[in-house]
């Protein structure tokens, strides 16, 4: 996805500029709304009988929403929502592997009390 808000957020995160990334969250949410509309328009049209374009549109919207969710204020909600949206963006064959990787990462975290 090379839409400007996505590129800008990913660059900010790459530069460890979390504040800039968070400030761009609203731009991502606007983009998610646009992508969701594209998905619904495609799913409602009769020209997409094979479903591939509909699935791609859904995956794009969910992937961008995963990035937006990751920037939520509450880190636990951010992680849970981002994981949910990210797995929804994947092909079915990749979901189990993704969730296994997430579980492994979570197991490796040490909670400081």
Walk me through the topology:
Layout: H1 4-14, H2 18-23, H3 25-44, H4 52-69, H5 75-89, H6 92-108
Tell me what you see in this structure.
- The chain is mainly α.
- It has one domain.
- It is built from six helices and no strands.
- The longest helix is centred in the N-terminal third of the chain and has 20 residues, at 25-44.
- The radius of gyration is 16 Å and the shape is globular.
Short summary:
With 113 residues, the protein is mainly α. The protein is built from six helices and no strands.
Evaluate the radius of gyration: 16 Å
The 3D shape can be described as globular
The whole-number mean of residue pLDDT values reads 93
Give unreliable regions as ranges.
none
Largest sheet: none
Compute the separation of the termini in Å: 39 Å
Report the helical percentage. over 70%
Per DSSP, the total helix count is: 6
Q: Quickly give the structural class.
A: mainly alpha
Strand and helix order: HHHHHH
Number of domain modules: 1
Number of strands: 0
Strand content: under 5%
List keywords for this structure.
single chain; 113 residues; mainly alpha; 6 helices
């Amino acid at each position: 996805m090379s839409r400007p808000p996505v590129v800008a957020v990913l660059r900010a995160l790459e530069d460890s500029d979390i504040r800039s990334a968070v400030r761009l969250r609203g731009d991502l949410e606007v983009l998610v709304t646009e992508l969701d509309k594209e998905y619904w328009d495609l799913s409602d049209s009769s020209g997409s009988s094979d479903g591939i374009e509909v699935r791609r549109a859904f995956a794009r919207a969910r992937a961008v929403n995963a990035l937006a969710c990751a920037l939520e204020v509450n880190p636990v909600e951010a992680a849970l929502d981002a994981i949910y949206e990210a797995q929804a963006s994947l092909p079915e064959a990749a979901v189990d592997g993704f969730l296994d990787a997430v579980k492994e990462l979570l197991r490796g975290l040490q909670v400081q009390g």
